Amino acid sequence: MKTALLLSGGMDSLAIAWWKRPDVAITLDYGQKAAEAEKRASAAVCTQLGIEHHIVRIDCSSLGSGDMANAAPDAAAPASDWWPYRNQMLLTFVAMKCIGLGVKKLLIGTVRSDGSHIDGTPEFVHLMDQLLSMQEGGLRVEAPAIDLSTAELIQQSALPADMLAWAHSCHKANTPCWNCRGCNKYRETYDEVSASMA
């Protein structure tokens, strides 16, 4: 079964790539402010592992809100990094690419803490799996780390420290701002796992 990974270049998806070794990885440049760094990080892990890497470019920046779009948060935003229907959008665009590549299973890097947003919950992943699999192509969606913290995922995957250093988690820019939720997560996770890494 041909498997793809939605690869953002953040800690979670890099660790999934190292752990699951998908046949294909797909990175989306949808107009987010950190797109260039995310593509560099994604390319680095794919080169290291020999994974076929595709980049899909669709400018949705006019539809974004908050940190990732360098815009004011939407009135419905539960957090500053919320982008309306972001995970639904990402899954749809990547699923469209998967059909052409003959992919049957799509992995995503959702972890336990992503449940702070509705589109990071097990229920959301289940519904997206049901929605995509009932359509032509029968694509299945799986979040293998959804019960793990990011630190637990990194330890499970045995991601080496030099590859973890490539991860880009900043929501605001191509260089870490160190004052967004993504940078805070990176720093806290790195502190937690670095002592146990080679």
Describe the overall structure.
- There is one protein chain.
- The protein has helices at 11-20, 35-49, 86-101, 122-133, 150-157, 161-164, 181-193, and strands at 3-6, 24-29, 52-57, 105-107, 140-142.
- With 198 residues, the protein is an alpha/beta fold.
- It has one domain (3-197): HUPs (Rossmann fold), CATH 3.40.50.620.
- The protein has a five-stranded parallel beta sheet with strand order 3-2-1-4-5, sandwiched between helices.
- The longest helix is centred in the middle third of the chain and has 16 residues, at 86-101.
Short structural description:
This protein has 7 helices and 5 strands, in the order E-H-E-H-E-H-E-H-E-H-H-H.
